[in-house]
Design a protein that fits this description.
CATH topology: SH3 type barrels
Helix content: 25-40%
Radius of gyration: 13 Å
CATH architecture: Roll
Shape: globular
CATH superfamily: Ferrous iron transport protein A (FeoA)
Strand order of the largest sheet: 1-6-2-3-4-5
Distance between the termini: 18 Å
Number of strands: 6
Number of helices: 3
Order of helices and strands: HEEHEEEHE
Largest sheet: 6 strands, antiparallel
CATH class: Mainly Beta
Length: 96
């Protein structure tokens, strides 16, 4: 795929809440809208702004892959995490 098509695909994906990102999709944490206490807990697990993540499984808890590990995040807390979806793999399918 030409880089301009990939850039257009990635740009069209738009930011969304972590609990809206389908299983198997990748993204980068853009913003975390939660209490300071919850933010510190997430950071202790390695989840912070700028971190690349993969949604392994949707549900409660939502399972994330990051830093060669998997962590569980409650669906309620996942609603407060904003991610920028990434186009990964050969399909560059950002919409699904």
């Amino acid at each position: 795929m030409e880089s301009s098509k990939k850039e257009k695909c990635c740009a069209s994906a738009g930011r969304r809440r972590l609990n809206e990102l389908p299983a198997g999709k990748h993204g980068v944490v853009h913003q975390i809208e939660t209490t300071e206490k919850a933010l510190h807990r997430l950071m202790a697990m390695g989840l912070c702004v700028g971190r690349e993540i993969t949604v392994v499984r949707q549900g409660n808890p939502l399972i994330l892959g990051l830093l060669d590990a998997r962590i569980g995040v409650s669906s309620r807390l996942a609603h407060h995490i904003i991610v920028e979806p990434s186009c990964c793999g050969d399909s560059h399918d950002c919409q699904s």
